[in-house]
Structures are given as structure tokens and as C-alpha cells.
Specification:
About 75% of the residues lie in helices and about 0% in strands. By secondary structure, it is an all-alpha fold.
Amino acid sequence: MDIELLRKDMVAAMKAKDKPRKEAISSLISAVKKAAIDEGCRDDIPTELTDRVILKEMKTVKEQIDTCPESRQDLRDEYQFRYDVISEYAPKLMSADEVKAYLQEKFAELLATKNKGQIMKTVMGELKGKADGKVINQVVAEFCK
């Protein structure tokens, strides 16, 4: 995801006077800028960094939805709206079957060792931002049985 697209969508939301959407996109842009400053690439923000931040923000909002008390439906709706907006910009993640096929193709000899720690260490570097860590963990655990 390109940060310029986020900026254009935020401007479009402002022009449409869609305040909740504008705020959701604005918080995403702020998080991306902060991460870029932390990594020392303030002016030229790579799309990989933007995707990583979007996934992280999505996970944070999902946790907010899960921990929100049942009695606060208004807050829950607000978090759900933010989650929906953020998920529009999130990169598509690999499914469990795609992860399994990828691991069998690229890491066949490593999988044969059945050393879960070593496999996870190697695989997470390759698949970071392409697949959910929980899905990768489940697939690797299946191979190590």
C-alpha cells in the first residue's frame, strides 16, 4: 500500500464530510509516519513498511473489539468501523494451504528436521507481512508432529 493513496483517500473523506472514515485513515497515516521516522526513512516510505504498519494497526483494533465490554455497543461499533476501514487497505495474507505449499516447496529439508524453533525462526523472516504468524505457527506445528 502506498502512503499517497492513503492521503488521497483521507482528502476524499474530508471532502465528503465523512469524519469517522477520515479519522480512521488519519490514524493509519500517523502510525505509518511514526514507524518511518523510527526506521530512518522519513521522506521515502517503502510500501513494505506501510503494509506492515497497516497489519499491526489492524491487529490492535481487533484486540480492542475483542476486549470491549458487551455493554458498550457504541464503542464496539466504532472499533468495528475502524477495523473495516483499515482492512480495506490491508494486504491480502496467505491462507493456511498457501503457507503449507510454500513451506513444502522452499523449506523441505528444514521441515525434515522437525525442529520447530529453527523452522519458525527461518520461516518468519521470509513470510513476515505475507501471512499471519498464528497461521504459520499452526502449519509448522502440524509438520513437526
